[in-house]
Amino acid sequence: MIIVIGMFFGLILVGVPxxxxxGIAGVAGLVQIGGDNFLxxxxxxxxxxxxxxxxxxxxxxxxxxxxxNRSGITGxxxxxxxxxxxxxxxxxxxxxxxxxxxxxxxTGAAVSDAAAFGNTLVPAMVKKGYSRPFACAVxxxxxxxxxxxxxxxxxxxxxxxxxxxxxGLFAAGIxxxxxxxxxxxxxxxxxxxxxxxxxxxxGPSLARILTAFRxxxxxxxxxxxxxxxxxxxxxxxxxxxxxxxxxxxFVGIVVYRALSVNDIIEMLIRTSRITGxxxxxxxxxxxxxxxxxxxxxxxTIAAWFLSMSDDPNVIIALILxxxxxxxxxxxxxxxLIILAPVLAPLTLAIGMDPVHAGIMIILxxxxxxxxxxxxxxxxxxxxxxxxxIERISKSLIPFLIAxxxxxxxxxxxxxxxxxxxxxxxx
Amino acid sequence: MVKASNLRGxxxxxxxKLNWWVERVCVVLVAALVLDVWFGIIAxxxxxxxxxxxxxxxxxxxxxxxLLAVSCAAHRREHIGLDFLSRLLRPLPRMIxxxxxxxxxxxxxxxxxxxxxxxxxxxxSQFAMIFGMTMMVPYASVPVAAGLTALQIFIAAIKPVVExxxxxxxxx
Amino acid sequence: xxxVLKLSHLNKNDPFDNSTGAMATVFKSLVESGTNGTVKVxxxxxxxxGKDAEVLQQVKAGxxxxxxxxxxxxxSVYPLIGALDVPFAFPNISATYKVFDGSFGKKLSGSxxxxxxxxxxxxxxxxxxxxxxxxxxxxxxxxxxxxLKIRTMGLETHKGLVSSLGGQPAGIAWSExxxxxxxxxxxxxxxxxxxxxxxxxxxxxxxxxxxxHLFTPYVWVMNKGxxxxxxxxxxxxxxxxxRSAITAGRGISRIIEAxxxxxxxxxxxxxxxxxxxxxxxxxxxxxxxxxxxxxxTKLGAEGEDMMNAYITAIKDATK
Lengths: 426, 172, 319
Ligand code: NA
Ligand code: NA
Known about the structure:
By secondary structure, chain A is an all-alpha fold. Chain A is 78% helix and 0% strand. The interface between A and B is large, with 62 and 58 residues.
């Protein structure tokens, strides 16, 4: 086990692509168990790790983003946002955060959010003078709002696994999701001058907003249509990403007449390549994740960690510390299935409400997607924008601190989470 | 431009050509994926056809497309990793490091290809829920993609023109 | 040396929570005590090691030694299991025990062993009969069912069942069913009571119709090489431990159904209606010929033979 973990960090630090490292470390683990039948598990897990319908939202949102960029939809949306808040320092960064809240109704996973915004808002922000690492960091920070505000894939898994009301979890996620948005906006505001974030010369004017609104009307309609499609029961959240592709293509080809056949071929190639980069990481992580599950490593570490203290505060701190690391080694859906049954009883024993504990565990896992050096949201952003992981990570630090602080607040202040569910009588 | 006067040049041109074709296959697959999911929505919501195969078919197309594209990204050296160490190195050690990394990558994908063939063969006796199809069809994506990726890493490793410097924020 | 038996099952390990949890923990306890620890049982709950069909491959390859599987997953290696999807076949739950413990169970085990090369330990209770829930209207007659969009697995027999009753089958990934039912992508779905409760569908559905239209057992298999490598007395222990575990699984399923976590809990959110025998007969008249046709065309003569043996066994069991 030490060999595999040492190998994992060693190979990452010398610069072996992450998608290779996860697979190589996983295979090393299988070799250690020994036997040809165990080696054959590598191929099975590589395939099985991808065999999940909800992953499909990622390629679709990447493709939709490609189409929106080339057909000018993104540009128009950015113009509108600029007219609304561009006069504020870091206005576009703020609107990125607000957009994450709106987008939260359309997605159940942080990586989909990172794929969609990384491919659209990051280039738009760069165009307006933001540094790319900062734009990526804002997007990464905002991506965890998606799975915190309903719908949320992890909440569905947690609810059915642990016998907790899913409707209750959905309701409980709303306030924490909004809080993440507000706190990240506060970080942007606080850092704005220090980082020299852009600010447009023009002041706010109703005329400019109206012009921009008319100019970008079809683009603004896009989220309305997608959200409408979900809420009215036409599509599931994953399928909604395919609706986004449809609408963007329609507007791009029929209305704006901005797309040629060659454009479309190029966009499909780029979509498949980015998807390939990210999916290689997911598939390889599934090899390592299976090995860890088979060796019962997460449970063993959790048990060892939690045997260290009886103090409720220390236990919560240890749980959070454990969860924040998990995203390094495995897919968080798999991690939740393994760890929730180990951790939830402890939270119950120290008197936490099951819904409250669920929100805390889910949020911590989602944050683990962007803790450097290994996390799926970082990889998605790196591959869609071409920015280096190191630079994104560095820009992300203040946001990460803020979000961990929110996580701690949520852990220790139950009313914050439980307010909405209680209000709704759940 | 690379001259095709020697073996390495020929290999590189072959890699380019191969990649061109694989990319076109990916285009067809991603387009098929999009159409499949659209059709699934229309069949359920508008036509009320009562189909259940679109979801499973979509998963398999998605996996084929994404895994084939792994080789395309390998061809362009786009697979992401931390590169601060190689940035610190001088050209020669950097080249040695890069070669070692490529070697590891090739070893991994060759391994995956070999065991993927075994899985695909076993898949002949497993059944998907759609069309009475055997799992050999989706499973074959692993050995095919892994084989192509190993080959493209090798070709990129022996690429004639010295161009292995990591570029600042490359994008496709 | 000590033999390790790794057992995968689909739910939580808690024996009071669900039937596979009960089966697995009872089995572990009986095997470890019965063999004086020469066979150690290690449990992998909640499908941690992969999808059901993938874990089956792990059992086959000897990566793990045993698994308790749903018929949906099991159909990937043994499509003939679809022959059990005869709609409205059982008059009551007690008959299922007799059928799967009796000569039909032996016939099915024999067929599975010869086709898949895995040893069958028995057939567990997956939570009783399948029932329909929906958010549109109470289903009391066949006419009420018409036009409902019902989420099903991709199995031909399940699809065929829904459409033969006048509903529209909808294929939705399991991970999205809750949200799909909430927003109305599908009007309803079908599952046994414990699964409806477990997946919290009562939060997003209004009506539960106790239709009892299907019974799908859990199929419990063991790697053949591992089983053959056990001593005669260890084999005995494994066999009786599995039998007792299956009994425990059935018991906990019935207890859950009857207790706070089953029907009484669902009845707080859902309007529950139990189809009377007369109405069930009408449902069956609509569905049975269609499903028999599906089984014939999809599974051939072997499937038909298995189906007929099943129907006969049920008749005998309820005499
Ligand atoms: Na969401
Ligand atoms: Na992480």
